[in-house]
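Researcher: Go.
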Amino acid sequence: MKCSFCGLTIEKGTGKIFVRKSGKILNFCSTKCEKNLLKLKRKPRVIKWTNQHRKEVKK
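Model: Structure:
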């Protein structure tokens, strides 16, 4: 399972699951990722320490 924000793999039995009203399931490895996506509404491709940003830079 991968984190919905940073893209890191989450070990079994750890992390948090958030279910939106629409039924979409979001997995988070830490509260840092959860807060950045849900509360601060940041985009993962803009934040430098996420895997999505690293993929954008390589292109």
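Model: The mean pLDDT is 94.
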